[in-house]
């Protein structure tokens, strides 16, 4: 496109020639002049509208470039953050929870042992309650307890027996009485 | 066409880079762009083609601000792909195609927005656009408005040929490269367009008044 002021004459000549085919000579020249003036005004309008276009394009280009850079930086930052989180989280050693295993093997479980009633009822309550709580004791312990309990029982029986024994003091009169009665009775 | 503004300077070369100081031709612009002088090359590129791009956009959109936006978008897209331009066609042909695509997109977008009544309606916008165009091109006279209305009556192909030939002052060869129409068909289109315009002008009241006023 040329400047309005330097319009290509070939275009004007061509237009005039075409107009002369359609219109009388003078009219053709008038119309060509009108069109020429119109073309100049049109070109001035275009010049005015595109005055700072190159500046706007450069600014828009920078804006687009900056936006693209921001997007790329944002994506990279987000990716780095995600990777960092993954690394941090994976570096924490989470204790593996092993399935619960019985602390006592099945063959080691022993049946509940009935403490003999004598053991539980005779003797000190404290001893009795202690005995009841130790249900996991082995047979040897229980036997020992039983033996101890029996010994306690024996000792207790003896003690009871001993406590019931009274010492009798027999006087002569009593003997006389006993004997007299016996004699009288004889 | 884009003649050198200063013929004496055109052939001066930068002593360091060996490139032209003033980028006039497409090859000089492309050479400078590929040599890393992107800002300089783009400025020259926009300046040498801005009238053409804006004119094409304005003929498509009939709205000054939309045409400016379209022209900016065209150059933005072109600048992103300028380095990949293979030179199979001229830059002007390439820009013409981009401009048509951008304008089609803008018209589509405008229609879409008007469908949902966002912004001005299509009809309102056209009226406003024409009014705005008339106001903006401040130096337009009554004849310009009348002539634009005459142009509207000319079939699109003939109108486009007339505009490219008369306003943009392109050669038939260049118009043929842009539109893909043969030069003979373009000449015929131009002839028919001029004939219709001349008849419309001659029979108009405006022409009689103009003649009476001398």
Give the H and E element order of chain B.
Answer: HHHHHHHHHHH
Task: Count every helix of chain A, treating DSSP H or I runs of 4 or more residues as helices.
Answer: 7
Assembly status: heterodimer
What is Rg of chain B?
20 Å
Distance separating the two termini of chain B: 33 Å
Strand portion of chain B, in percent? Answer: under 5%
Provide the descriptors you would attach to this structure in a database record.
heterodimer, A: 186 residues, mainly alpha, 7 helices, rod-shaped, disordered N terminus, B: mainly alpha, Arc Repressor Mutant, subunit A, 2 domains, 0% strand
Textual characterization of the structure:
The complex is a heterodimer of chains A (186) and B (214). With 186 residues, chain A is mostly helical. Chain A contains seven helices and no strands. In chain A, helix 1 crosses helix 2. Chain B has 214 residues and is mainly α. Chain B has two domains: 1-115, RNA polymerase sigma factor, region 2, helix turn helix motif (Rna Polymerase Sigma Factor, Chain: A); 134-214, Orthogonal Bundle (Arc Repressor Mutant, subunit A). In chain B, 73% of the residues lie in helices and 0% in strands. Chain B is built from eleven helices and no strands. In chain B, helix 2 crosses helix 3, helix 4 packs across helix 5 (91-115) and helix 8 crosses helix 10. Chain B starts with 6 loop residues before the first helix and ends with a helix. Residues 1-12 of chain B have low confidence and may be disordered. The interface between A and B is large, with 39 and 49 residues.
Helix and strand arrangement:
The complex is a heterodimer of chains A (186) and B (214).
Chain A: H1 9-22, H2 25-49, H3 53-91, H4 117-121, H5 125-133, H6 139-164, H7 172-185
Chain B: H1 7-10, H2 26-34, H3 38-61, H4 64-81, H5 91-115, H6 122-136, H7 142-153, H8 156-167, H9 172-179, H10 183-202, H11 205-213
């Amino acid at each position: 496109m040329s400047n309005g002021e330097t319009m290509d004459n070939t275009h004007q000549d061509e237009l005039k020639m075409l107009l002369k085919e359609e219109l009388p000579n003078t009219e053709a020249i008038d119309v060509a002049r009108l069109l020429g003036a119109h073309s100049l005004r049109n070109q001035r309008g275009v010049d005015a509208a595109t005055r700072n276009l190159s500046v706007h394009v450069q600014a828009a280009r920078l804006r687009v470039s900056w936006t693209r850079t921001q997007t790329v930086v944002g994506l990279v930052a987000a990716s780095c953050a995600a990777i960092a989180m993954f690394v941090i989280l994976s570096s924490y050693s989470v204790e593996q929870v092993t399935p619960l295993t019985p602390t006592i093997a099945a063959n080691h479980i022993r049946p509940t042992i009935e403490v003999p009633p004598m053991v539980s009822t005779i003797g000190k309550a404290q001893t009795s309650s202690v005995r009841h709580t130790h249900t996991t004791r082995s047979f040897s312990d229980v036997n020992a307890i039983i033996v101890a309990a029996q010994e306690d029982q024996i000792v207790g029986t003896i003690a009871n027996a001993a406590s019931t024994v009274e010492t009798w003091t027999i006087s002569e009169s009593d003997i006389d009485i006993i004997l007299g009665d016996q004699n009288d009775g004889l | 066409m884009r003649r050198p503004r200063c013929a004496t300077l055109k052939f001066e070369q930068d002593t360091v880079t060996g490139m032209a100081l003033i980028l006039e031709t497409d090859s000089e612009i492309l050479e400078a762009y590929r040599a890393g002088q992107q800002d300089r090359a783009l400025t020259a590129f926009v300046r040498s083609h801005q009238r053409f791009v804006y004119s094409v956009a304005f003929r498509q959109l009939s709205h000054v601000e939309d045409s400016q936006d379209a022209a900016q978008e065209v150059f933005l897209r072109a600048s992103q792909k300028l380095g990949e331009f293979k030179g199979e066609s001229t830059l002007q042909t390439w820009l013409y195609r981009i401009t048509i695509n951008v304008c089609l997109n803008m018209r589509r977008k405008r229609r879409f927005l008007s469908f949902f009544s966002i912004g001005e309606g299509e009809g309102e916008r056209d009226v406003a656009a024409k009014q705005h165009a008339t106001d903006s091109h401040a130096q337009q006279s009554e004849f310009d408005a009348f002539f634009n209305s005459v142009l509207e009556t000319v079939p699109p192909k003939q109108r486009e040929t007339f505009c490219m030939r008369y306003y943009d002052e392109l050669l038939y060869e260049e118009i043929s490269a842009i539109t893909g129409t043969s030069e003979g068909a373009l000449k015929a289109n131009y002839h028919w367009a001029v004939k219709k315009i001349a008849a419309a002008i001659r029979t108009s009241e405006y022409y009689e008044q103009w003649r009476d006023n001398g």
